[in-house]
Amino acid sequence: MALKGNLRDFTITQLLNLINLAHKTGTLIVEGPSEVARVAFREGKLAYVQIGQEDNSLAAVLQRNNKINQAQYRVLKTRAAQMSDKELGLLLINAGYVTQEDVLSSLQSYAINVVRRLYTWVEGFFRFDNDQVSPEEKITVRIDLENLIIEGSRQLREWEQLQEEIPSLEMALKFTDRPGANLRNINLSVEEWRVVSYINPKNSIRQIARVTKMNDLEIRRVVYSLLQAGLIEIIRPEGMPIPVGVRAFPTQNKEEQKSLVNRLISRIRSL
Amino acid sequence: MQTVKMVVTGPFNAGKTEFIRSVSEIDVVSTERKISSEAEKIKDTTTVAMDFGRITVDDDLVLYLFGTPGQKRFDFMWEILSEGMLGFIVVVDSTRPETFREARSILETFRAYAPTPYVVAANKQDRLDAWEMDDMRHALRLDQKTKLLPCVATNKEKVKSVLLELLYSILAEMEAGGS
User: Fold this and answer.
1) What ipTM does this complex have?
2) A248 and B132 in contact by Cβ < 8 A?
3) Inter-chain contact A167–B112, Cβ cutoff 8 Å?
4) Residue B33: phi, psi to the nearest 5?
5) pTM to 2 decimals?
6) Which structural domain, as residue segments, surrounds residue A231?
7) Among A88, A133, A138, CA closest to A110
8) What is the CATH number of the domain that holds A186?
9) Which 240-269 residues of chain A touch chain B by CB within 8 A?
10) Does residue A22 lie in a domain region?
11) pLDDT tens by residue, B14-44
């Protein structure tokens, strides 16, 4: 079944994570703003990359990694044009120009760099093709995705965590009742001071953000750091109605509650 | 007459109204309006207040199903609807990965409102472009303990099994002393 979507809604990092966790084999095709990238995976490991019309031949990759010089690259491009990367790799190793380690580390470095470039793509479409694998004549690598995911997801994770910590900007802030706490003795950043000056049970976090000209991420970041420092707590804004605590069950007797759920189960089964 | 309720939530156009309609014994009291926002014009109408379905259990007990409004700007309704719920169902459109993050956010929000049992229904699993269940679990960041159930909201039997799984979870939690 289809694994496809839009990068605006599903980031490269999330895709890598999914591929890694599911140990997927196939090719991720990403149609970016100006070019198309093909990233092949084998059992959840990065195996091969191709971005746009960029020369990803072994000769080009070795030259970019300074394993061969420009003159050698030009010679190879003309004289070894008919050779596959695998054949060329063997030839260069046997001739003593490069080592096997040079070949593998250069290809790995290139593949990682391409994936890093993809992190900057926020617009475009992607699809994962299970049937498409890396070209037969190419030398594939085998790179664990974990580090790449960690790197790429750092910012995304921060945003998600902040949203989880502070799900609603409609709540207000108040200073915690800590007798020993003295704001003058705490080193706050300029942004934190700006927020602190508006902390009042009547002001929602969103209102504070508006006044201090911070976006949702920035205000959450500041509020989170103040929360972590134990200086403030989140409260319901003054004037906001407190919901009446309605009980889920009409009875408080545990056995009656279980009986009620069993009656529901029987009824739904019989629908 | 005793009444209990469950909440059916999820992103815009996930299939919440259809879900309730499939099992409700009354015509769903649906407050749908034509969509004004061009960005959200995937379908012609959306639920602006709430859907309301009913299943009569016996002479003494009625289960109400409340569907939350699909559009984000009506999320102020969620907390009100979540009060006193037995549990909740997050309906996710398996063919629209762009809504997965929102589904995750809705799930977290409802969990914050009330620590009641919940299940996630992967709707439209009959469609060719539906994501696989395992992929959806990863994408929605659901742990193995969370029930992610294949669903087709227009199919009564599928909807029944989602409701039953939620009830089994409620029962299990009660037996474990959680409720």
Assistant:
1) 0.85
2) no
3) yes
4) -135, 160
5) 0.54
6) 166-235
7) A138
8) 1.10.10
9) 243-251, 254, 257-258, 260-265, 267-269
10) yes
11) 999 899 999 988 776 655 555 555 555 555 6
